[in-house]
Amino acid sequence: MQNRTVVAAGVLGALLALGVVAGSFLMGGALVRFKMADRNVVVRGFAERNVEADLAIWPIVFQNTANDLTELQRLVDLHDAQIRGFLKAQGFEDGEISSMPPQITDRKTQPGMDPGVKLDERYMAQTAITLRSSKMGEVKVAMRKSGELVRKGIVLAQDYSLVPEFLFTKLDEIKPEMVAEATRSARAAAEQFAKDSGSRVGGIQRAEQGYFSIEDRDKGSPDHKKVRVVTTISYSLENH
């Protein structure tokens, strides 16, 4: 092992003499870029946190059909009230519940529809009631109980533009600690590289805080998030 270290140090020393050493590699989870001709090292430090979503947005989309608009509106109002009652029974308040105007479709006038075809129910309405709440536990329970709405005769529909969302809104609370952790990660990588190359870390030449990303931890757990940040720092390298 010692012989390998001596050989590696010798090769590195020869390249340093030529002033052409450049490249990148991973060290301790941080990306290291180096260019010995300029005597600096650029490192990227990483920090990650697993967090719980703190805000849920749940659009409940339902459909009604009828042969006249008066009856259609009656059904929309009935099912709107039933869904609101269901949500209140789960512990939610009026301020957490909102309704979108129904979208009415005249099926008889749809492209490709034969005017001579008799429809039992000419009109269709699609409506969405949206729950926006920070009561994460109650939201998940209500979602599991949504079958109760079906048993009441409510036709729940799927709309890919209105899907449940779980959000993490407290990023500012963890930003400083995560930036500090990413900076420590970058510094540790720079110091390790300097040690291996027979140098020491000097001052910071340039620092860039990368953007924060918030993603689902996995597809099956959208209420669990992974927060990540990357910090890029350029250090000068000095001889011992």
From TrEMBL:
Gene3D superfamilies associated with the record: Protein of unknown function (DUF541), domain 1 (3.30.110.170), Protein of unknown function (DUF541), domain 2 (3.30.70.2970)
Transmembrane stretches, start-end: none
GO biological process, one term: DNA damage response
Entry-linked InterPro entries: 26kDa_periplasmic_antigen, SIMPL/DUF541, UCP029033
Protein name: SIMPL domain-containing protein
